[in-house]
Every structure is written in C-alpha cells, then in structure tokens.
Amino acid sequence: MTTWYEDAFRPGSEIRGKWNGRVYMVERLLGAGSNGVVALVRRGTGRFALKAGHETVDHQSEINSLLAISLTETSFKNFLIDADDMTVGEKEVSFYVMRYIEGMTISDFIHKRGQDWVYVIGTNLLRKLTELHRNGYIFGDLKIENMIVSNYGDVDLIDFGGVTSKGRAIKQLTEVYDRGFWNKGERIAEESYDLFSFAILLLKSLDQRNRFTGLTQTLPQTRDLEQLTAIIRENAVAAHIAPFLHKALNGEFHTSQEAYQYWRSLVSGKKIGPMTLKMPWLKICFAASIFIFGATVYIYW
Questions:
Q1: Are residues 93 and 116 both part of a single domain?
Q2: What dihedral do alpha carbons 26, 163, 173, 260 form, nearest 10°?
Q3: In a domain, 9, yes or no
C-alpha cells in the first residue's frame, strides 16, 4: 500500500511552501515515524532537513517549541529555517525546515572509534541539555535515535517532538528511557527527567550484550534499577561513570548544571585513544566544533 508521503518525498520531487513560496528539492527520505516524515532537501546550494507532520496540532506545537529555542542565544540559535504548509493530493500538510547535520548515532560512533569517546559525547550532550533547560524547556524524548554525533564527539539533537515547557506533562516519550517506565518518578517536564533519560541513553550505547531487549519485556511490578547494575559492572567505561549514573537514575541532581559539573569532575583526565581528556582540551574541542559549525552556516535567501 502506498503511504501518503511516498510521492511527495520521492527523490527529485519539489516541495513548494504555500505561504512563503520557497521551493525545496528532495534528495532522499531520511526517516518516517509515528509523528512525521523527515527528508533531506536542497534549496540553492544549501542542504536542509525538512520535517512534515501527520497531526497538525502536534506538529504546530513542535514548531512553536523549536521557534522559541531558535531565538535563544545558544547553540540552538537559528536552528529553525522555515515553516509552511504543503499540498499532498487534496491534503494540506504542515512542515518545517531545520539545519541538516551530517553524523551518526552514538552507538555507531563509539563502535567505530571506541567506548572511551562516551566521555566527550556525554560532556557535549550535557552542555546541550543545560542550554535547553536554562531557557525553560525539557527535551522529553531523549534517546539514541534523536541525536547525531559528528566530528570530535560533537552532538546535535534532531527531533524536537518531545520538547516541553518546564512543569507540564511530558508529551512524547520512549518507554525504556522514561523514568515512569522504571517506577522512578512522574512524567513531568523537569530537568531530572532528561537526566534520567541521559543515563539510560549512555547505558544503552555501552550495552554490548543487548541486555535492554530483555529488560523492556519485564512486568511493571518487577522493574528495578538494580537490573541495570549488571551493565555497569561489566563495562569499564560505565563503571567509571557509575557514581554519575546512579545519581541521575535516582533523581539526585537538582539541575543539569549541577550534573554537568559533576560529570566534568569524573571524566577529566581520562584517556581518549592516544589523548588524555583534560578541561583545556575540552575547550579546544568545543572551540573547534564552533568553528566547524560556523563554517557550515549559510544564508540561502
């Protein structure tokens, strides 16, 4: 059966905004899920990610959240490029356009370069979350599939469907990353919610025996964080960051800034391949990532 988006997002087809009139050429489909379709598109010499939503209300809420954080003086600034409607058959579908980031999942990255890179990736991801939290938002649906790792462990978040204002109910989640699934707290948008997901994300990326497959099939009354300790014990990287993981999983961090500082104290001095991870080196990496980001930003109007 043909899905509603197959013709609209066929490589070489054009997407024309109804209100702004901008035209995007589809290069290829990047993914399709329950809350939308994402395609790699081109306009002029620029390449972008275009996401079209199935449900207008939910998609508009995502656009509003992305617009708000795109106006902040953070690494999310100008992340949102365009927002408009397109016509698919007789149906009007909303879409938005955002920066396109080349990279891979954290699992693929550490498989290729080594698990010690978790120290750098974790630092960069916590910095991203701290920026988001400082501006009043929780990411909500933090998981391996919703982040991209590139360059020297640089991190970008790529799906903002779960972004929620602090204090509200989490609107989108993935069960195994959700503290409610593990009976460790409510599904309320607060910084500790993202930090719990962050800890699960790291454990899943380090889970060489794929233990999570079995854990997700357990009954609610039998789920316990003790089930995760086997993953921590058997992995040298997880064991080193175990104090952080335990605090994050048990909701002991009041803010992501506090978590970020604690993380830095744990990973400083760790070996990454032939290099030793020190705070001055982290600053150099961060400066390099800013330079690379600046070199890829372009104006297409």
A1: no
A2: 110
A3: no
CA 139 to chain centre: 8
Same domain, 46 and 167: no
Q: Record the pTM.
A: 0.86
The residues that bridge with 85 in the sheet, in sequence order, are 94
Query: Is the same domain home to 231 and 88?
Result: no
Q: Which residues are annotated as a binding site?
A: 51
Q: How far apart are CA 176 and CA 246, in angstroms?
A: 16
The reply to whether 90 and 125 lie within a common domain is: no
DSSP at 238: H
Instruction: Give the active site residue among 116, 141, 156, 178.
Output: 141
Question: 96 burial class (0-12, 13-18, 19+ CB within 10 angstroms)?
Answer: buried
Residues 59 and 112 in one domain: no
Residue 203 has a CB neighbour count (10 Å cut-off) of: 20
Binding-site residues for ATP: 51
Would residue 224 show up in a list of annotated catalytic residues for this protein? no
Residue 94 lies in a domain: yes
If one counts the domains in the chain, the total is: 2
Q: How high is the pLDDT of residue 271?
A: 64
Give residue-wise pLDDT tens across range 174-194. 999 999 999 999 999 999 999
232 CB contacts (<8 Å, ≥6 apart)?
A: 203, 238, 239, 242, 245
